[in-house]
From TrEMBL:
Keywords noted in UniProt: Membrane, Mitochondrion, Mitochondrion inner membrane, Repeat, Transmembrane, Transmembrane helix, Transport
Mapped Solcar repeat ranges: 4-133, 141-226, 265-349
One GO MF term attached to the UniProt entry: pyrimidine nucleotide transmembrane transporter activity
Name of this chain's protein: Solute carrier family 25 member 36
GO biological process terms held by the UniProt record: pyrimidine nucleotide import into mitochondrion
Membrane keyword on record: yes
InterPro entries: MCP, MCP_dom_sf, MCP_transmembrane, SLC25A33/36-like
Length: 355
């Protein structure tokens, strides 16, 4: 029976991850390019270098007009003065669509589809299995159980699927309109340059990123427990009211509120719980995302996790560590809401009524 439960969690995780990834792929492309140091979306990203130039003027490349603009140095350094030249999310999407076509919005979708199902399946499967194991040896369903389970799940998923996400990032950073980098060519090039270990570049950032997963799941479990407690209380009250109103009960005298009552309202509640928990986690732990993307750039001067964070902070300030956060939130909130709610719905659909 326990093995059947693990299979259900694997199926639910894979289905949920695939659904969310396909729907939010264009925003994932924009987010990755904003995080990168080679992105065409960012006109000015090395503030330290600007300070070394003459104070009278600097040259800023404008990708909107594909030309150059000469502006005053203080205008470049003051975000309020060049805000109108920056790419917003919609402008980024339009730019990709114009220069690379509709396929540009879905770059990296192939590796994503290959990786998201096993990644989510490994993640949710490891999480559920670890939680079951810990519940047998320590106080069940405590924050410690959720935290340890989240760490185990995050490390397991990152280790198994890092090569897939590495290839995906390289494909998304390819901005050529002609002779586009293919998945096969990308894999061949990485292997020729660095061998097998090349596919694991940036995994240190992924391991540090487990902290985001931990924060996310601990908050989600707390919200979920509150939702379930309130939902059960409301349904018990409704059942009692129906009995008082002489509504015919079930054959056994009880009203079943298990599988059949996983309503649209429940789905929306889990979506809200997933969105809230992921928002908190992303805002707290976001810099590891920037570091991971930089580490995966081709010919990168970024060598390790902390070296990357230090270099980005030195050259671009605190804002550099949070580049693409807005896009990430816009992408992650609906994506996580869809993933968590789909996961709960599939589990409820496949789990036996008696459980």
């Amino acid at each position: 029976m326990e093995s059947n439960k693990n299979v259900i969690h694997l199926i639910a995780g894979g289905t949920a991850g695939t659904t969310g990834a396909v729907l939010t792929c264009p925003l994932e492309v924009v987010k990755t390019r904003l995080q990168s140091s080679v992105s065409s979306f960012v006109q000015v990203n090395v503030h330290a270098a600007l300070r070394l130039l003459p104070s009278q003027q600097v040259v800023a490349i404008s990708t909107c007009t594909h030309g150059c603009q000469v502006v005053h140095n203080d205008a470049v350094l003051d975000p309020s003065k060049y805000k109108k030249h920056q790419f917003q999310i919609v402008s980024c999407l339009k730019h990709i669509l114009k220069t690379e076509g509709i396929k540009g919005l879905f770059k990296g979708l192939g590796p994503t589809l290959v990786g998201v199902a096993p990644s989510r399946a490994i993640y949710f499967g490891a999480y559920a299995h670890c939680k079951q194991a810990l519940n047998r040896v320590i106080t069940p369903d405590t924050h410690l159980v959720h935290l340890c389970s989240a760490v185990a799940a995050g490390v397991s998923a990152a280790t198994c699927t890092n090569p897939i996400w590495f290839v995906k990032t390289r494909l998304q950073l390819d901005q050529k309109s002609e002779n586009k980098l293919t998945c096969r060519e990308c894999i061949r090039r990485i292997y020729q340059q660095s061998g097998i270990k090349g596919f694991y570049k940036g995994i240190s950032a992924s391991y540090f990123g487990v902290s985001e997963t931990v924060v996310h799941l601990v908050i989600y479990e707390a919200i979920k427990a509150h939702i379930q407690q309130k939902t059960n209380h409301d349904r018990l009250a409704a059942a009692n009211q129906r009995l008082e109103d002489s509504v015919e009960p079930d054959i056994d005298g009880d009203i079943d509120y298990s599988k059949e009552t996983f309503l649209t309202s429940d789905y929306l509640k889990y979506m809200l719980a997933g969105a809230c928990s992921k928002t908190c986690a992303t805002c707290l732990c976001y810099p590891h995302e920037v570091a991971r993307t930089r580490l995966r750039e081709e010919g990168s001067r970024y060598n390790s996790f902390f070296q990357t964070l230090f270099l980005v902070f030195k050259e671009e300030g605190r804002a550099g560590l949070y580049r693409g956060l807005g896009t990430q939130l816009i992408r992650q909130i609906p994506n996580t809401a869809i993933v968590m709610a789909t996961y709960e719905a599939v589990v409820h659909a496949l789990m036996p009524v008696s459980d």
